[in-house]
Specification:
Elements lengths: L5 H6 L7 E4 L3 E5 L7 E7 L6 H7 L1 H17 L7 E4 L3 H4 L8 E5 L10
Antiparallel strand pairs: 1-2, 2-3, 3-5, 4-5
The structure holds guanosine-5'-monophosphate and zinc ion.
The site of zinc ion has 6 residues, from helix 1.
């Protein structure tokens, strides 16, 4: 991947993003169209299409992604009231960007998990 992938281009610094945390292997930045008072995306710098591919291909990196997401939640003050960590995956999951990303959502009650 690389030039064809929006989030690889953010990792490369070719597209600006509001970065809130960076490690050797992960990057966290604010969603451009926030759906909650706090809405941060956490990605591995290495390209994996979705959480299934990442989880099976590099479980250690998946763990680092979770650790970064937890640190973001702490930095954003979400640990007390709680938050939602979400991986939209594939067509039925509503995934739009095919570079795996965890949505860290919080700052207000988020309602039911799914609309019915
Ligand atoms: P998905 O639907 O794939 O789970 O989520 C993709 C997310 O990426 C959406 O919440 C969308 O607002 C966000 N997004 C799309 N393009 C950009 C961008 O250029 N910069 C940032 N920071 N977020 C983006
Ligand atoms: Zn990518």
């Amino acid at each position: 991947m690389g030039s064809d992938c929006l989030f690889c281009r953010i990792v490369a610094g070719e597209i600006p993003a509001t970065v809130v945390r960076e490690t050797d292997t992960t990057l966290a930045f604010r969603d451009i169209d926030p759906k909650a008072p706090v809405h941060v995306l956490v990605i591995p710098k290495e390209h994996y299409a979705d959480v299934a591919t990442l989880g099976q291909g590099d479980p250690a990196l998946a763990g680092e992604l979770l650790a970064t997401a937890a640190a973001v939640a702490e930095d954003e003050g979400l640990l007390g009231d709680g938050f939602r960590l979400m991986f939209n995956t594939g067509a039925y999951g509503g995934q739009e960007v095919f570079h795996v990303h965890a949505h860290v959502l919080g700052g207000a009650p988020l309602g039911p998990m799914l609309c019915r």
